[in-house]
Request: fold
Amino acid sequence: MKRTREQSRKLTEVKKKRVNLGRHRVAVLRTVRKLSRRQSLFIAEYLLDLNGTQAAIRAGYSEKTAQEQASGLLSNVMVQREVQKRTEKRAARLELRAEEVIETIRETVARCKGPEF
Reply:
């Protein structure tokens, strides 16, 4: 089955880049592929406990090859970037929650030190 132009655009983003090589100008097509569903699922599972083998099993990879799949996925640059991005988002979210908890504790302590009955 042949893909339509729109379907192809959804699967990949193609960027043209001009590169100057001496006298020659070459148009370079760079294809940036998106992560597959299984790779995205692996990333989500990996961030739960940072165990690559178990994340691969939970993402649907075979138990026999889970360790090799996890190693391959974790060395994939696109997967590494996505793990880093999601880790940074989670850290920022947790930092905000920690600040809220500390502020609530300070307010509680301040109320407790208030005028005694």
The radius of gyration is 24 Å.
